[in-house]
Amino acid sequence: MDKMPDIKPGDLVKVYTKIIEGDKERLAPFQGVVIKVRGSDIAKTFTVRKVSAGVGIERIFPIHSPMIARVEIKKKGKVRRAKLTYLRQRRGKRMKIKEAVLPTKAKPEEVAEETPPPSEAEETTGESATGPETVEKV
Q1: pTM of the prediction?
Q2: What is the per-residue pLDDT for 96?
Q3: Beta strands in the chain, from DSSP E residues, in sequence order
């Protein structure tokens, strides 16, 4: 994998792993919530949890594994803990994590273009610079 995105606990991720069956290779997606990230450098792993048919499934992925094709971050979660193991006891809405509001880049103040008021000719004919306008009466 070229570059791993910045994965944090609470993120909803989709991990594509390579599955080799005989001489064929395919990608299998696994989508769930990151409940913990542990280790550092080459030994770093992250645990992803999903609920499938009412059964909780957790998988531990090494960050630098060659079997991971790519990781997509679907949502960034807003959490206040490093380990979200308490989600194992939660069901339904109580398992939901708030979505983080990503900071927007400060834009320089843009000068708003002011549209000039319509001229008298446009008001009476209903035509503007872009073309005739039709008004439907109800």
Answers
A1: 0.68
A2: 79
A3: 12-21, 24-38, 45-52, 55-62, 68-75, 127-128, 131-132
